[in-house]
Amino acid sequence: MISKFDKTVTLSNGVKMPLLGLGVFRAEDTPELANAVRAAIKHGYRSIDGGAVYGNEVSMGKGISEGIKEAGISREDLFITSKVWNADLGYESAIKAYDESLNRLGLDYLDLYLIHWPVAGKYKDAWRALEYLYKQGKVKAIGVSNFQVSHLEDLMKDSEINPMVNQIEFHPRLTQMKVREFCKQNNIQVEAWSPLMVGKLFDNEVLKEIAKSHNKSVAQVILRWDIQNDVVTIPKSINESRIIENSQIFDFDLTDQEVEKINSLNEDFRVGPDPDNFDF
């Protein structure tokens, strides 16, 4: 429909995943969220990223259903993601959690299902459940979220199928080179959550200068930087004009020098929990 949204990466199993999507973390389960999802689809977005713990899958699903109708597309044109929460990281409980997410979303299948956090002693059982769902054809691709190299190595030691995606906190202050390099070597697609660092980068002088030279916003520069670093990105917004703005990143290129300048802003600074030290 809109060429910029045809931009995809091909996962290790051949499934195509859009480079840009809409994230719904911290959006309440309200008509406002349903409208935001519907608007995103109307404006060409084809990827929506959710998670059971966000507590908003009903509104997300309503927005998907309305968006499909309004845009005149089919379910197969979309790429829908959800995640199994920590409390459900057992074999049977993860399968049950998947079915419950589908039910809330009003969908027959997901395109991507992720383990949300690497809870010690639990994620391997959950991964076996995801492998089962994948082999049964119930989900198109499976992966993990917030996994560091040690977690990935531990998981892959016993897995039949390697994760196809690793969704991690990624922004100019947290470039996660070690994890990204490992994922690249093992054909695992990296995806960014909190790519805009919850707005904490909008006053950065380096980013403002680069944005000015391209006549773009700082947000657009950061999202473009994600793409040029081969990272799938899912900025969260429920504001229609911001949703449109976030999509206008395929009509310019950052120079190699600009990419390096942004890379050099890294401080290994997290806005979210540390995957090596969390207790939930």
Descriptive key words:
10 strands; alpha/beta
Summarize the structure.
Residues 27-267 form the NADP-dependent oxidoreductase domain. With 280 residues, the chain is an alpha/beta fold. 40% of the residues lie in helices and 15% in strands.
The CA-CA distance between the termini, in Å, is: 41 Å
Please trace the helix and strand order, writing H or E for each element: EEEHEHEHEHEHEHEHHEHH
CATH architecture term: Alpha-Beta Barrel
State the share of residues found in helices, binned by percent: 25-40%
The name CATH uses for the topology is TIM Barrel
Domain tally: 1
Low-confidence runs of at least 5 consecutive residues: none
The largest beta-sheet arranges its strands as: 3-4-5-6-7-8-9-10
Give the class-level CATH name.
Alpha Beta
CATH superfamily: NADP-dependent oxidoreductase domain
Please give the radius of gyration in angstroms: 18 Å
List the total number of helices: 10
Q: SS-based structural class?
A: alpha/beta
Mean pLDDT: 97
The major β-sheet equals:
8 strands, parallel
**How many runs of DSSP E, i.e. beta strands?**
10
Q: How much β-strand is present in the residues?
A: 15-25%
Q: How would the global form be characterised? A: globular
